[in-house]
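## Example record

The block below lists the input lines for one assembly entry, exactly as stored, with component labels intact.
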Amino acid sequence: MPADFRAEIEALRPYLMRYASLQLRNREAAEDAVQEALLAALGAESGFAGRSNLRTWLTGILKHKIIDTIRRASRDSPLAGEESDASEFDALFDERGHWHKHPDAWSDPDGALHEKQFLAALESCLAALPPRTAQVFLLREHMGLETAEICKELGLTASHCWVLLYRARMALRECLQKNWFAR
Amino acid sequence: MNLSCQEATRFISQREDRPLTLTESAALTLHLAICRGCCAVGEQLSFLRRAMKRLLEEKA
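Predicted structure tokens for the full assembly:
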């Protein structure tokens, strides 16, 4: 195996760690998944053969390892608590389903995307989500899985998935509103 | 179908995950035309998608 292929792969380890940590929210599990992905990649150099971007190719392998990890974990110890109760958002609405307080548009949200502190605020908001809610949201928005795949991997019904995604998005919206845009 | 804001925000979220039915989609469009609060939420949830992509690139 050419040493430079190994070196190129090794150089992408920090990115892959970042990718896996975001989804798995556990450093050890992320390290294991990255290690497995790198080993698989080294054994499959011919499968790469410069067909695509190396990072894209490695990320594809890593995604499979991450999903394996999640599948194993949810089989061994199903997450306690269904987190299916959306009542905390009912607090946003009156009994007829209208806003207690109309949300205001955010000023220059896309400008915030270039601020490191904003991204740190987003990460804190993600960290504050309940485990199952965060897991489903990240599978959807970070890993880009379709809802049907998420349901299959986690053994959830489609409507349960939609409820969790709704909860995650509304909670993140509230959290960013409070901790960033309303400062 | 007259949507409440609570129902409208559910559809705003779900349209990222499944195609809405024609009835749902029409009801949502109608609601968004008259509700500034739900419009803001719609824009904010699209922004959240862009922010999630950015999160990974920035820290890489």
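Residues 86 and 167 of chain A are 7 Å apart (CA to CA). Chain A is about 70% helix and 0% strand.
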